[in-house]
Amino acid sequence: MIPYQLAGLEGEEGRLGHVLVADLDGKTRTLEADCLLPFFGLSMSLGPIADWQLDLQHNQIAVDPATAATSKPGIFAIGDVVTYPGKLKLILTGFAEAAIAARSAYALVHPETPLHFEYSTTSGVPSV
Predict the structure, then answer these.
(1) What is the number of helices (H) and of strands (E) in the chain?
(2) Longest alpha-carbon distance in the chain
(3) Is 90 inside a domain boundary?
(4) Is the full-model pTM beyond 0.85?
(5) In this predicted model, what pLDDT tens digit does every residue of 55-88 receive, in sequence order?
(6) Do residues 63 and 70 lie in contact, with contact meaning Cβ atoms separated by under 8 Å?
(7) Residue partners of 32: CB distance under 8 A and separation at least 6
(8) Distance between CA 102 and CA 125 in Å, rounded?
């Protein structure tokens, strides 16, 4: 959704039901959703996320680089809006942080099911 930004999430019993987005004038829309796939953009402004009472350092979200976890349990953050020691502001770093956050969120949602990665370099090229 462009030129919208995330304004809020709604749901019940730990499940997403709606995503609220706001345009540049602050006008909001409510979208029915069961999954949120945010993509990177060009603005490093926290927008309404600044009001979520997360630990901030120099107007950036402080995260654990090993998990992408913020100071609020169950909230993960990645990209140019986050900070941690040694942070490199590169697109490649953001993609790596996305994998770390996804792995961490998976472990939170499915604590009884280990997540195993498999790489083509270790499993070989698939046969046709």
Answers:
(1) 2, 6
(2) 53
(3) yes
(4) no
(5) 999 999 999 999 999 999 999 999 989 999 999 9
(6) yes
(7) 17, 18
(8) 25
The Cα 109–Cα 52 span in angstroms is: 21
Count other Cβ atoms within 10 Å, centred on residue 76.
22
Burial class (CB in 10 A: 0-12, 13-18, 19+), 61: buried
Residue 124 resides in a domain: no
Residue 62, strand partner residues:
83
Q: Which two tokens stand for residue 109?
A: 């949602």
Pairing of β 56-57 and β 60-62: antiparallel
Task: Based on the fold, state whether residues 93 and 58 are members of the same structural domain.
Answer: yes
In which residue are the tokens 């901030």 written?
A: 56
- The Cα 55–Cα 63 span in angstroms is 8
Residue segments in the chain with a per-residue pLDDT below the cut of 70: 1-2, 39-43, 119-128
